[in-house]
Amino acid sequence: MTITVPSAFTVDDVLKDRVALVTGAGKGIGAGVAEQLARAGATVIVNDSDLVAAEYLTAELTGAGLRATSLSGDITRQDTLDEVVEFGTGLGGIDVLVNNAGITGKKHLSDLDVETWNRVLDVNLTAPFRLAAAVLPQMRRKGHGRIINIASIAGIRVSVLGGAAYTASKSGVLGLTRHLSSELAVDGITANAILPGVTLTPLVEQVTDEDERVRMAASVPLGRMGRPADVGRLAVYLASEAAGFITGVSIPIDGGMTVLPGDYTEYRTTRREDPVWTATA
After folding, report:
1. Which runs of consecutive H residues, i.e. helices, occur in the chain?
2. Is 84 helix (H, G, I), strand (E, B) or coil?
3. 56 in catalytic set
4. How far apart are CA 55 and CA 75, in angstroms?
5. At 220, is the secondary structure helix, strand, or coil?
6. Which helix or strand (DSSP H or E) is residue 99 part of?
7. Domain carrying residue 102
C-alpha cells in the first residue's frame, strides 16, 4: 500500500487531538480505515498481529506527514490487551476504538471443527468485547468515546466465503454493538457497526482473477467493488462530532447489495429486458 499526498495537502482537523486504535490495520480494510482516520487528524495506533505489516503502514503514514504509531500483537491475548491500555494511556487515552481484526475460518460445516469455531469467535467477537472493556476506563475519564465495530453484511445475511463461524461471529458483533450503545450512552460513548460488502482488498486480489472480480463487481448495484477507503471515510464520520447523536446502528456499505435478495445481475438483466422498464427508462 502506498500513501500519496498532494503537495498542497493539509490534514483535516475533524479528529484533531483524538487517539484512535485500529486492530488488524496492517492491510486491507483496516489499513484503509487507519489511513482515513490519520488523514482526518487523528493519532492512529496501527495494530496487527503481523509486525512487518503494521510497521510498514505506520512508516507510510508518518512519511506522508500523518500521525501514526505501530503496536503489534494478537488481540486475543491478555498481554496485548494490557499493552494496548498502557500504550493508549501514554498517548493521553484512546478516544476511538475500531475493532477491525477478523478471520474467516472454513467454508463448509462438514469441515468446521470446534477449535476453528472457537478461534473465529475469539478473534471476531470476543476480542472486540475485551478491547471495549479494556479501553472503557480511558473513555469514561474523558467523558467521550467512539467504538466502531467492523462487521460484515454476513451479519444480516450469510457468509458465502467464511462459513458458519464467520456468519455467527459477525451477527454477534451486531448484538454486541447494540448492547454497548445502550450501556455506554450515559458515559458519552457511542457504539456503531459498519457492514462492508464485497471489498477489493489485497487478499481478494491475490485469490481471484480479473474475470472473477468482474463478476463480483457485477453483483453490486453500483457496479463496482468497495474499497478500503470507502469504509475508512465512513469510520471517520462515525468517529467525528458530526455523528455524536448516532449510536447502536449497523450501517451496510455495500453498493446496494443488501437492498435486493438473490442475484442482482439477474435482476438488472430482467429490468433492462422488461418492455415496461425499457419504455419508461
Report:
1. 28-39, 51-63, 78-90, 114-121, 127-142, 163-184, 202-207, 210-218, 228-239, 264-273, 275-280
2. helix
3. no
4. 17
5. coil
6. strand 96-99
7. 19-280
Q: Which amino acid is at 258?
A: T
pLDDT at residue 280, rounded to an integer:
41
CA dihedral of residues 171, 176, 179, 180 (deg, nearest 10): -140
CATH code where residue 224 lies: 3.40.50.720
Total structural domains in the chain?
A: 1
Cα separation, 43 vs 66, in Å, equals: 8
Asked if the structure places residue 3 within a domain, the reply is no
pLDDT of 103 over the 70 cut: yes
Whole-model pTM: value is 0.89
How far is 168 from 81, CA to CA, in rounded Å?
24
Cell of 4: 500519496
Cβ-contact 184, 199 below 8 angstroms: no
- Spatial separation of the C-alpha atoms in residues 64 and 57, rounded to whole Å: 11
The whole-angstrom separation of Cα 34 and Cα 235 is 9
Q: Please, which residues bridge with residue 97 across strands?
A: 21, 147
The answer to whether position 4 is within a domain reads no
Q: How far apart are CA 192 and CA 93, in angstroms?
A: 20
The answer to whether position 10 is within a domain reads no
Q: What pLDDT shows up at residue 101?
A: 95
8 inside domain: no
Residue 244, pLDDT above cutoff 70: yes
pLDDT given at position 118: 96
Residue 11: C-alpha distances to residues 43, 161, 185, 274 (Å): 12, 37, 30, 49
Count of CB atoms within 10 A of residue 260's CB?
A: 12
Q: Which of 72, 6, 66 is nearest to 35 (CA)?
A: 66
C-alpha cell at 36: 482515513
Q: Which residue among 166, 237, 264, 267 is the active-site one?
A: 166
The share of the chain scoring above pLDDT 70, in percent, equals 88
For cell 450501556, name the residue: 183
Of the ranges 82-86, 102-106, 128-132, which one carries the lowest mean pLDDT score?
A: 102-106
